[in-house]
């Protein structure tokens, strides 16, 4: 699907964003392996989260009916959003597509030991989070599992997960370092202390999930802090979790059922924040997650000249929730995101690059090599797309450099990557001419109804 973007409109007002998919993955796994009833509200219906729900429906017999019903409600939204079939944007009406995110998902669990052997390969589709977290969950299971995904996911590295789990005693085989991944049964896992030179919240989470079923203590030491949703949830559920600086330790325990409302996704909010700032409008986003390991992009945007404030309203299963307010931005300026800060804005680099294209000077993202092995090679995709819109960017070894000064407009493609497509739409809102972005249907992965949400806030968009 191709979206035409005409500049000149102010994108502002009041908004909410879909639930945080990073949190949703983890809560789905924890609710499905809890003992007793869990009630999850605000579960986002993006494709990645649905991949985790579908896998847990296979693995967890008692929660299966509720998960299958929830999946069916979301599938009714479109036959195949990845290909753009059976889906209507309804941009002119300014309405979000109907979904089931307002329905509570109620799961009755029998505990981690009640997981059942999957009758066939677990299809993680395009979700790296699903595959990596489930590998950790299944490492101590008394049965064999085979996990794989689509062509894009099957090209992503998996030895970073397999190596520490093998050190715990797990029997894991990858395919030349990539999916499909085979997890065979093992008698018992044992705790380890793992120091990873490359920061990754997914690696950390896989180890911690395995550690909840291992003997002794399991410790992960990070080179820099990454998002901490797993340890926050385990701690909120009463788990024996110790956090000391960049070190997280967990011991074996079985959690009980819980209730929570998934906070709005700050990574999704980042696109709306950027849209408002680039079009000179004010915007208030309510009910969004304010976890400090996820909101570092706000500090980067403030350095670039965007006036921002946040307000904390409460907590959900250990996650802070509140509001983000965007003031009217004036002239923007370039900044540098250093190696230590980069992991805390890893998902927001594409949208920060979109803002940087309109700033004064050259913005640099240092040590961004991890972006080469996301849903796409995001470094190359950012360069290609910004150049397609008339801008200038380049990759220098592991760094991304974006030259500001504005964009004349043009054509760009998502390359099948949800964050890349949304970033180019946002960048085009402040271009001097009309632009078109192709492959916008892939935004369904993390931000269902992204284009209609922008339209409702004032953006001038239409299907091309």
3D structure, described in words:
- Helix 1 (21-32) packs parallel to helix 4.
- By secondary structure, the protein is α/β, with parallel strands linked by helices.
- The strands form seven sheets. A four-stranded mixed β-sheet has the order 23-24-1-25.
- The protein has helices at residues 21-32, 47-59, 64-75, 128-138, 159-167, 201-211, 229-236, 266-278, 296-303, 349-356, 378-388, 418-429, 450-456; strands at 2-6, 13-15, 35-41, 105-110, 122-123, 145-148, 171-175, 178-184, 189-190, 193-195, 214-215, 217-221, 241-244, 247-251, 259-261, 283-289, 308-316, 319-326, 336-337, 362-365, 392-396, 399-403, 411-413, 435-438, 460-463.
């Amino acid at each position: 699907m191709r979206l035409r973007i005409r500049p000149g409109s102010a994108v502002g007002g009041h908004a909410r964003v879909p639930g945080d998919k990073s949190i949703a993955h983890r809560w789905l796994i924890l609710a499905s392996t809890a003992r007793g009833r869990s009630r999850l509200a605000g579960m986002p219906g993006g494709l990645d989260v649905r991949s985790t729900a579908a896998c847990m429906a296979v693995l967890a017999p008692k929660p299966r009916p509720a998960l299958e019903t929830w999946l069916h409600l979301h599938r009714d939204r479109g036959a195949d959003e990845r290909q753009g079939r059976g889906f209507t944007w309804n941009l002119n009406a300014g309405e979000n597509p109907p979904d089931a995110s307002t329905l509570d998902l109620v799961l009755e669990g029998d505990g981690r030991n009640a997981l059942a052997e999957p009758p066939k390969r677990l299809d993680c589709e395009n979700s790296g989070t699903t595959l990596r977290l489930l590998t950790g969950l299944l490492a101590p299971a008394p049965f064999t599992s085979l996990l794989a995904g689509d062509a894009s996911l099957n090209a992503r590295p998996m030895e970073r997960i397999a190596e520490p789990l093998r050190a715990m005693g797990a029997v894991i085989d990858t395919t030349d370092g990539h999916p499909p991944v085979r997890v065979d049964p093992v008698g018992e896992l044992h705790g380890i202390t793992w120091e990873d030179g490359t920061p990754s919240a997914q690696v950390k989470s896989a180890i911690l999930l395995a550690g909840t079923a291992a003997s002794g203590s399991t410790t992960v030491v990070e080179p820099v802090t990454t998002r901490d949703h797993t340890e926050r949830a385990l701690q909120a559920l009463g788990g024996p979790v110790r956090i000391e600086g960049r070190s997280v330790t967990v011991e074996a325990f079985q959690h009980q059922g819980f209730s929570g409302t998934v906070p709005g996704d700050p990574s999704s909010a980042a696109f709306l924040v950027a849209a408002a700032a680039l079009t000179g409008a004010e915007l208030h986003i309510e009910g969004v997650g304010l976890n400090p390991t996820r909101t570092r992009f706000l500090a980067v945007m403030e350095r670039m000249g965007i006036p921002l404030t946040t307000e904390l309203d409460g907590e959900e299963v250990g996650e802070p929730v509140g509001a983000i307010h965007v003031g009217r931005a004036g002239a923007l300026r370039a900044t540098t995101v250093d190696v230590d800060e980069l992991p805390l804005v890893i998902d927001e680099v594409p949208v920060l690059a979109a803002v940087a294209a309109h700033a004064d000077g050259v913005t640099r993202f240092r040590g961004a090599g991890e972006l080469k092995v996301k849903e796409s090679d995001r470094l190359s995709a950012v360069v290609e797309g910004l150049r397609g819109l008339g801008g200038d960017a380049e990759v220098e070894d592991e760094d991304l450099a974006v030259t500001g000064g504005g964009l004349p407009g043009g054509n760009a493609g998502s390359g099948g990557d949800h964050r890349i497509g949304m970033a180019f739409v946002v960048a085009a809102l402040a271009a001097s001419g009309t632009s078109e972005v192709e492959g916008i249907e892939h935004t369904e992965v993390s931000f269902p109804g992204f284009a209609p949400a922008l339209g409702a806030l004032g953006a001038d968009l239409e299907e091309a």
